[in-house]
Amino acid sequence: MAEKFDLFVVGGGSGGIRAARYASSHGIKTGLAEGWTLGGTCVNRGCIPKKLYAFASHFADELQIMKSYGWSTLESRFDWKKLTANKKKEIKRLNYIYCNLLKKSKVRVYNNYAQFLDDKILKIGNKLIEAKKILISVGTKPKKLEQFKELNLISSDEAFDLKSLPKNILILGGGYIAVEFASIFNGLGVNTSLCIRGKRILKDFDSEISEFLMEQMSHKGIKIIREDFPKKIEFKNNKFNVCFSRKRLSYDRIMEATGRVPNLDKLKIHNANVKLNNNGAILIDKNFRTSQKHIFAIGDVVDRVQLTPVAIAEAMVFVKNLLSKDNHKLSYKNIPTAVFSNPNYACIGYNEKEAKKLFGKIKIYKSTFKALKLSITNSNEKVFIKLITHKSSDKILGLHYIGENAAEIVQGFSVAVVNGLTKKQLDKTIGIHPSSAEEIVTLK
Ligand code: NDP
């Protein structure tokens, strides 16, 4: 006999957990299946450990800066094993918190993978589940490049728990993950190269910003190989020998960061006749409904915006619509985001090219300067601010910031940008002096 639920959530990541908790605490009989540890990619193999490792890597700069401020330190040494062990401890704590939150909300949790037998019945181990509504929130996993699949290349999944740091590493790709890990490894003392087939990293972001960030990353010692990509990789004598079109180089490790693919292998989604798009992601309508009217999907697996806060927002809208007759919709406009590179980059709104295309006449304000904190140091790190406004309405169309604490700064401004902030309103605001962010309200 199948156990019956009003709502069954497959996938215990940020989106799935939020949906399950919210639904169950409003009286909807809810179950959730997760085969790995609770918290999904974000908590276990993504945002949280990545940010901890980014903090660790930034101390390399701080140790240099300290000297210009009169501090001398004993010889500093970095202990990778200690970092990985402390990271594990913290993640265990978070897993436990998620487990308790689900328990408190009376969600029935199954610690195993679910698979569809048909569009109404799921099988988990030897149990059968029947649900009036099913929500798929299984996320994504690292994409493996076909031509290198026989080689033991790592992805972000393995990078967090390497037994030891390599002496040198080649990172393939130039998206969020590649750029963040390049900064992490470089900061931790690994000789780091990043390789992109195109001209610039973060291709979908503002081109000037990505050029500026590449320059900053290069100053910090990251070698960026552009418009080239490994033609052939051979593993010999514990080294990866890589043939580029113009040179041969060898590395201790190679990390693939060339995107992520839907994590659907275990779900047997074909049994439920749910339609997928060309990338293999689940197709949904504005209400997160798949091609089956009682099956829904949210989060990275739907290939909209692959960000934790977006998955959580989708979960909230999905459950609100279950609870009421109002048809809530999620706006995907003006989603702030950050790349935790060194230096950090954060933005909200459009890049210059998009803004020009969508709004025609725009105005650009820019500022580049050395942050006060670095003024008495030898660092050549610079802050770069770029503001894009609509010429006729004066509204802010895009705000881009490269520099320390970019995410914290842009998060604050995002509230105003989402609510239609104009340049005139920015001009009316008095700056906090001395700060780097005050430059945003004094741009001319
Ligand atoms: P991205 O889509 O950001 O970047 C993929 C990179 O891989 C691009 O540089 C792309 O190059 C390159 N690439 C793709 N296919 C190939 C190929 N066949 N050969 C060579 N290069 C290739 O993916 P990520 O894996 O970095 O991140 C996945 C998602 O996770 C992001 O989109 C983001 O939403 C989320 N994320 C968010 C973070 C944050 O909020 N800070 C952090 C990490 C991830 P090209 O430009 O030439 O196509």
Task: Provide keyphrases for this structure.
single chain; 444 residues; FAD/NAD(P)-binding domain; Enolase-like, domain 1; 3 domains; 5-stranded antiparallel beta sheet; 23% strand; globular; binds NADPH dihydro-nicotinamide-adenine-dinucleotide phosphate
General description of the model:
It is a single chain. By secondary structure, the chain is α/β, with parallel strands linked by helices. The chain folds into three domains: 3-142 and 261-323, FAD/NAD(P)-binding domain; 146-258, FAD/NAD(P)-binding domain, CATH 3.50.50.60; 343-441, FAD/NAD-linked reductase, C-terminal dimerisation domain (Enolase-like, domain 1, 2-Layer Sandwich). 31% of the residues lie in helices and 23% in strands. The chain contains eleven helices and 21 strands. Strands 1, 2, 3, 4, 5, 6 and 16 form a seven-stranded mixed beta sheet that branches. Strands 17-18-21-20-19 form a five-stranded antiparallel beta sheet, with helices on both faces. The chain has a four-stranded parallel beta sheet with strand order 10-9-8-14. α1 runs parallel beside α8 and α3 (47-68) packs across α6. The N and C termini lie far apart (70 Å). The relative contact order is 0.12. The mean pLDDT is 97. The structure holds NADPH dihydro-nicotinamide-adenine-dinucleotide phosphate.
